[in-house]
Amino acid sequence: MEKKRLSNYFLLVSTIIIVLVILITKTVVIMSQRHEDKAMYSMRTKIEYNAKRCYLEEKCTDTITLQKLYDEGYINEEVINPITKEVINHDLEIKYDNDRIVINW
User: What is the pLDDT of residues 51-89, one digit of tens each?
Assistant: First the structure.
């Protein structure tokens, strides 16, 4: 009985397809992670910016909550986690310490 041999062409094409699938998968995962990181950065900086404004305008002192920023009018719409699509807890503590905003996630 004769054994069938795989042609070199078939092996080359199979290898190229496998490499392409791996590269495309890795690229999609990296792009998705970058998107999530940028979305979280955007949400975090929105809170930090408005909290710093509140402290610098001296309407806020010591530790405040996200609810205080809503009440003072610094944030008009609810802050939503861009990954989970859940509303951020209104009791989130925010502190202004050494010219930096510290959020107690």
Answer: 999 999 999 988 999 999 999 999 999 999 999 999 999
| pTM given for the model | 0.78
Whether the Cβ atoms of residue 94 and residue 51 lie closer than 8 Å to each other: yes
Nearest in space to 55 (alpha carbons), one of 44, 68, 42: 68
pLDDT digits (tens, 9 = 90+) for 4-38: 677 888 999 999 999 999 999 999 999 999 999 99
Is 102 in a helix, a strand, or coil?
strand
Checking 9-16 for CB contacts under 8 A at 24+ apart, the result is none
Q: Say if CB 77 and CB 100 are below 8 A apart.
A: no
CA distance 42 to 19: 35
* DSSP summary character for residue 78: -
Residue-range domain boundaries for the chain: 9-104
